[in-house]
Amino acid sequence: MKTLYKQFIVATVIILICSIGIGFALANVMYFTFTKDKTDAQNVETAQHIIDILEQTHRSEQAMDAYLASVGELGYQIFVVTEQHTHLEYGEPFSKKSLPDDVVDTVLNGGVYHGMQNFTGRFLLMDHFSNELENTVGVPFTIEEQQYALFLRPNNKMLFSDIHMVLAGFVIAIAIVILIGVILMARQLIRPITQLTEATKAVSNENFHYTLDISRNDEIGQLAESFNFMQTQLAHNDEARKAFISNVSHDFQSPLMNIQGYADLLQSETVSDQERLEYSAIIDRESKRLSNLTKQLLLLTSLDQATYLLKYKQVRIDEQIKEVIRKHRWRLSEREIDLSYKLEEASAFVDEELFVNVWDNLLSNAIKYTDAGGSVLITCRQHAQYIEVQFKDTGIGMTPEAVERVFERFYRVDEARKKDGTGLGLAIVKQVVELHGGKVTLESVLGKGSTFTIVIPLGRS
């Protein structure tokens, strides 16, 4: 497996190699465009200066030999060819001494040889340092009426001065330091990623309490913080899931056991007609409770799915609430609860079916927990940007602790609130309202009643 560490090092080395290659290519362009001709001209000028001194002050072969030997020791390679095509060498010898005869004849006849300008080999810029006779400049001179051709180039040892060696060492040192630094930095970067990999494996095994010890102020530190937050959320979701399964199992088991038990009793021959009616009523009530629980679970499951599509349409909220009131009129009469309402005409762009569930759950909740002789007040007001609906009852109310948790799924405050309830109604109310960009709040005083306030944005028109 190619680890990120190895890939990082290989990528760095490749970048360095590419940088060297590009730098070498640019150096070649600069050399062939500007430096090569200039170097040739400078060396021709130097050679011309040497022969001027020769012809003016060293007019014998012995003096010429001594002078050129001293010039060679100063850092030049000199090759002198006579009219008879014999040659003399001064300074560092050339590695290749072959030179076309026509070149020699041209210089002997008074021409100038621009070998440095015209020399091309296989190594481009590095050919500047080639120790070949062809890589020289040539000029003619005359001593004692004898014609000579002088070929000259600087000694390579002279080119590599102390400052050049220092610069070369500096470049090599930088390259080494960069490589070492990259290796250490890569190791430092990869270590937290390795920890994150181990933490991810732990989370995949449902270990949501893996200790991730990464303290950084960069992007990796932010990733670690996000991972810790995700781990906390997953732990919370896992606990909620287990609690949800436990609650669903319990809420299904209770009515099913009642139905099974009373069904067995109905099969007894000793059951009177009155008891038979009572048992049948209980079975009917438990069946409806089970059916209601199933419907609400299916609705919540649908709302939880990210792909759930809201069926928006223009809906008269006041008319919806009136219809729900008419449906529950018999329960209000049965429980002797006084219901009053003040519903202004209000229209919003919402999912009609979902909001029927909202008003039905809120009114059922108010009726269920309001004692005989109590009252329920429903108001609806349309503002510039939103609709405000309130359900206010004079029921048994709730403690502040219960108010904080009442919208949780399957949460029921006490035994008194468990009758005919599933613990899902208010959770559905909250989720539907928030799906539409709205907000639901609750104010409640124990023993005095509760007020639910729903704010719905008007949405699209």
**Structural class designation:** alpha+beta
User: How much of the sequence is in beta strands?
Assistant: 15-25%
Largest sheet: 5 strands, antiparallel
Number of helices: 13
Rounded mean pLDDT is 84
Distance between the termini: 58 Å
Q: Which residues form runs of ≥5 with pLDDT under 50?
A: 415-419
Account of the protein in words:
The chain has about 450 residues and is an alpha+beta fold. The protein is about 55% helix and about 15% strand. A 5-stranded antiparallel beta sheet has the order 2-1-5-4-3, sandwiched between helices. Helix 8 (about 275-305) runs parallel beside helix 13 and helix 11 (about 350-370) packs antiparallel against helix 13.
What characteristics describe this protein?
single chain, 461 residues, alpha+beta, five-stranded antiparallel sheet, five-stranded mixed sheet, 13 helices, 56% helix
